[in-house]
Design brief:
It is found in: Membrane. InterPro entries: Uncharacterised_TM-17. By secondary structure, the chain is mostly helical. The chain contains four helices and no strands. The longest helix is centred in the N-terminal third of the chain and has 33 residues. The protein has one domain.
């Protein structure tokens, strides 16, 4: 049997470092894209707000992901299920934000495909192990 608490904690620890790298790189590439390819955002009238929308999604993703990681670490270390459940609930908007960065930006660079795909893989693994952790928390103690 897999110790889901340990695996979940390891994934959270890895993601806390990867999220810092991901946030820095995504912010840097968005700033670079807005400076170098800023004209593409102004091609049509509906694309004028696209740059602001990209920044808004990025900032919202940073806030949600930071809260998700904080709640997950807090719940995993104290072995409480409520913070972990909130962390699992926050996984949905976080995955949505990464999917937006992966698919619906005006310009998506190849390196962003790699960063976002790796972030999605980590989030899906965390979701699976967090779900297993919650199930084991609701099960009664085993005296085998």
């Amino acid at each position: 049997m897999v110790n889901s608490s340990l695996a979940y904690e390891i994934l959270l620890y890895i993601n806390s470092f990867y999220f810092g790298l991901f946030a820095t790189c995504e912010l840097g590439t968005l700033i670079l894209k807005s400076v170098l390819i800023g004209g593409k955002y102004d091609d049509a009238s509906h694309n004028k707000t696209k740059l602001g929308q990209d920044y808004g999604v990025l900032v919202a993703l940073f806030i949600v992901e930071a809260a998700r990681l904080f709640l997950g670490r807090k719940g995993s270390l104290s072995e409480r299920d409520v913070p972990v459940m909130f962390s699992v609930l926050l996984t949905v908007p976080s995955i949505g934000g990464v999917l937006y960065l992966l698919r619906w930006q005006v310009v998506v660079l190849r390196i962003e495909y790699i960063w976002c795909t790796l972030m999605l893989a980590i989030q899906v693994c965390e979701f699976v192990f967090a779900s297993m952790f919650i199930v084991t928390m609701f099960r009664g103690p085993s005296y085998d």
